[in-house]
Amino acid sequence: MEFYYQTDPGKVRDHNEDSVTIVKNQSGEYLLAVADGMGGHRAGEIASSIVIGNIGTHFKEMGKIGTKEDAVRWLKDAVSEANVEIYKYTAEHPESEGMGTTIVTAILTDEFLLFGNLGDSRGYVLKDGKLHQITTDHTLVNLLVKSGELTEEEAEHHPRKNVLMKALGANTKVEMDIIDVETDVDGILLCSDGLTNMLDHDQIEKVLNEDLEIEKMVQKLIYKSNNRGGNDNISIAYLKKEVA
């Protein structure tokens, strides 16, 4: 396996509220995670670092994740625990009221590949040169698209495009989507919307198919996002499976 992750403040924001990691546990299983924080007084970066620190540390220290069912249970519990920590922080620091974060994760073992998400940070797989979006955006406009009130084209430029329907820190209890994916993929991509708001599906796919080292690939995606305006923080976690 090859993997690389990077976060960049972009060209407009004065600080970075994203957090990102890729870690291996003692059995060589992988966890990828990206969180996009929100809230005033730099509270967004605290929320995103809480969830990434929580799940990253716990995963790295474990021997083996266990069965697929064990992994689903662990992921839900770890994210719920992070949500409680965010609530506690907000209660102790009133100036951070309203802070929260998205979270998108992927767990890869020899037996299974699971994605989990809350919010509009996305998870993709690359297979046979084609990029496939696995997660669903938990946004108001996506809800309106599903109900037929907006077209996908209208949603792209909607003034409330970034209004989230789900996020960590928004409610006392959270229910994240868990998606079971076949393991025969060539790559796993997680990213914040700082990437997907700047580059479309085909542009991302094109870069991932270039003959580049994985670090250069991720850096090129960030460069291209900044070149198109970089109006948000940009975070990317990418894992490339070895060719058999």
In terms of topology, how is this protein built?
Blueprint: E1 2-8, E2 18-24, E3 30-38, H1 43-61, H2 68-92, E4 100-101, E5 103-108, E6 113-118, E7 122-127, E8 130-133, H3 140-146, H4 152-156, E9 177-181, E10 187-191, H5 193-196, H6 201-208, H7 214-227, E11 234-240
Antiparallel strand pairs: 1-11, 2-3, 3-4, 3-5, 5-6, 6-9, 7-8, 7-10, 10-11
Helix pairs in contact: 1-2
Count of individual domains: 1
Determine the CATH superfamily.
PPM-type phosphatase domain
**Percent in helix:** 25-40%
Query: Please, what is the average pLDDT?
Result: 90
* Assigned CATH architecture: 4-Layer Sandwich
Most strands sheet: 6 strands, antiparallel
User: Cα-atom Rg, whole angstroms?
Assistant: 17 Å
The level 1 CATH classification is Alpha Beta
Q: Note the overall shape.
A: globular
Question: Which runs of at least 5 residues are low in confidence (pLDDT < 50)?
Answer: none
Distance between the termini: 11 Å
Helix count from the secondary structure assignment: 7
Q: What is the name of the CATH topology? A: Phosphatase 2c, domain 1
Helix/strand order = EEEHHEEEEEHHEEHHHE
Kindly name the structural category: alpha+beta
**Proportion of residues in extended strands:** 25-35%
Strand count: 11
